[in-house]
Amino acid sequence: MTARLSLYQKAENELYKMDSSVKTKFYDFCHLFRNDPGHPKLDLKPLKGDRRIYHAKIDPSYRALLAPAGVGPDGVEQWLVVAVRHRKHVYEELSVAINRVTGEIEFVDLGVVGQSVLKRAGIQLTPDPAERVPLEAAAVREPVAVPEFAAVSTPDAEPSAVPLLAACTADDLRRLGVAEALVEVSLLVTSDDELDQLVAGAPRLTAEVLTGLGAGMSVEEVENEITRPAATVLEPGFEDDMGAALIRTAVTTVDDDLRNVLAEGDFRAWKVYLHPTQRKIVERNYSGAARVSGGPGTGKTIVALHRTARLAAQLQPGRDKPILLTTYTKNLTADLRSRLSSLITPDLLARVDIKHIDILAQGVLNENSAAGAQRSLIGDAQAKEVLGEILFEHDPQRRWDTEFLFDEWEQVILGQSLATRQDYFKARRPGMGRALTRPERGSVWQLLEQFTLRLNSMKRETWAQSAERAARYEMERARKIRERADRKAEIGGGDLKHLDDNSSAIRYLRHRYQHIVVDEAQDLSAAHWKMLRAMAAPGPNDLFIAGDTHQRIYDRQVTLSTVGINIRGKASKLTLSYRTTQEILDQAAKVVGDSTYDDLDDGTENLSGYHSLLRGPAPEFVACMDWDDEITRLAARLKLWREEITRPGEDGTVRDPSGAMAVCVADGDMAGRVAADLSLKHGITTATLTKDGPQGGGEVHIGTMHRFKGLEYQKLAIVGASDGILPRTALIEKFAHTDSKRYERELKQSRNLLFVAATRARDALLISWHGAPSPFLPIH
Ligand SMILES: Nc1ncnc2c1ncn2[C@@H]1O[C@H](COP(=O)(O)OP(=O)(O)OP(=O)(O)O)[C@@H](O)[C@H]1O
């Protein structure tokens, strides 16, 4: 090898979409170039406009555009492929520069700006002399064809139209990190279409900054939320050091595996290119517990996975599993496992325990229960029946209501792990609507004691109860470890052979994990947190927590500092959605817009700065006459979407529509009805989303909103979004009069559910209803 070749991220993304014949020729090109960049067949020449860019022949029609990036430590010259273009798109105004904020190499193609803005700026793209076809040679200044993604015709904006970014100056844009070649033209943009076109082709930081400004963020907000997190410290003279800039740039090294890389296409992107904000969060060393927040699709799970991979790579060799990766949602555990296994080698994967939080708690209970003494789990609905029986027997005056007592038990007694009556008398009851006097607390405690005794006698317990019991065992275990360590410290280290607690069980007691990574953290209960806290010794990088409280769909609000987890000063936020289009995101954000959300601690959280660079059709809101009408319209839309998905691509390949579309409903009964009607009346096959993933082999996934957490679909329909269903008025109306705080909590949960559901869609979203629409829909 005489040259090392790397692939710029945007070039790689463009290559995924190219015809396979071009890809094959590109592999051959790379092979030849790495062996001899000066090979005459390649015809490597600098571009006339920017001599930092060279073009080389892939075949008679296609060109690789390359930037030389110094010489590596081994003396091998380094080249970066910044684009692969048809020769008619190679023109003098292409440029390469080093960004003044990120220090990354950026390729700027003015073709992305769109004809209307170029015209306003008085810029005419000129074919590179070496690429002029003979006919064009006669008309030297004929405008060049611009690349396909920029060829969308934008109507000429009115000459007098006000620039979209009128509130900014060129210096502001420079300071925010907009690529120099795009500063002046950005200020000439006068419509959203023009801005979208510019953003679609601009380098990453420029695209984000312009999107933020276009969405109405102030220069200061963009600086704080977009530019600063992406900034790096740069030495004087950095502008000319392409070798150093290459190290800072997200690239793929071209080696013999390139064929597999390109075959994996877009599915691979998350493994390789972390956004600078994501990367910083992944790579930072934290003195203790840390947290990442961010709206749906901003890559919290991706960050959690990379964080796990990084921690695993830093482990001392061994055979144990010092890292726990856990999540609240059962069907996401399998997804975490498969993603992590594609990110790290099997030997590192073997060091990570990937477990659903309830399975983890069950493991602790099994370990601590004598054979035959285990309790089986009971669902909340059944447990409430048992509580109802207790009330029937012990509360003849009907002073207490089952719902109220069950809520008090889960939220206050289990929620705060209150072990004694005295603890309960002293407990604060935040978020609980009805105040309780001391005698009332006494009576509540007595009834709930009867209730738990009854469950015990049945050898049953609820999920919440089992989590709480597991937390107690783990806290006790942690206490023993701490006590032993303290005693050891007291006697100045050495062995504790002479002490009473030297049984091997205690002697070899260790914390279960060195690092714990938690995804979907917003739904964990206080007991879960106490268990996790006790499972890892407090210390650097002990807990890494990813979650978004706007997506909390179970009634649990925990302040981490009250369960011994201190994230203050170690919390970061992601704002760029990789999943959802800006159009969907705008509407979804309105669903939760007015409510206040906690930050898993004492503060509040909001979605400010949440944005996307993806564009697509506006979500559709469809009022239907009745159920039949709703299903008929749904079926028609699913068929249309199917047609779009299966339309042959440029290279003739046809995508399999299975699992690309989904229908989301409020409850299981409705899911069944939709599946039956789609199949019987419209011939559409479906698969039902269960705890263990989709069941049944049909094309369209159907499930309740709870099941959609953490998932994503190219096209998504939410049906039955009517008032009375969202929220479930029949179930919660009673709280409006008896327990206003509970009522508020129920409303918020419903609102969050709709938010979660709507943000599962990648590029198309349909929401329909019959009767009155849900009050949470952004149509009111
Ligand atoms: N750096 C990246 N490059 C490419 N794709 C990314 C990147 N980060 C995230 N993604 C993609 O964005 C999508 C959303 O990511 P992820 O599921 O991690 O988001 P999230 O914040 O956990 O979402 P949610 O809160 O809705 O569960 C996924 O398809 C993921 O592969």
From TrEMBL:
Q: Name one GO biological process term.
A: recombinational repair
Q: Which UniProt keywords apply?
A: ATP-binding, Helicase, Hydrolase, Isomerase, Nucleotide-binding
Instruction: Give this protein's Gene Ontology molecular function annotations.
Output: 3'-5' DNA helicase activity; ATP binding; ATP hydrolysis activity; DNA binding
**Enzyme Commission number, as recorded:** 5.6.2.4
Is tRNA-binding there in the keyword field?
no
- Binding-site positions, ATP: 294-301
Pfam families in UniProt: UvrD-helicase, UvrD_C
Asked if Acetylation is a keyword of the record, the answer is no
Write down the chemical reaction(s) this protein catalyses: Couples ATP hydrolysis with the unwinding of duplex DNA by translocating in the 3'-5' direction; ATP + H2O = ADP + phosphate + H(+)
Q: InterPro entries given for it?
A: DNA_helicase_UvrD-like_C (IPR014017), DNA_helicase_UvrD/REP (IPR000212), P-loop_NTPase (IPR027417), RelE/ParE_toxin_dom_sf (IPR035093), UvrD-like_ATP-bd (IPR014016)
Which residues does the UniProt record annotate as the domain UvrD-like helicase ATP-binding?
Answer: 273-592
Which class of enzymes does this protein belong to? isomerase
Provide the protein name. DNA 3'-5' helicase
Organism whose genome encodes this protein: Streptomyces rubellomurinus (strain ATCC 31215)
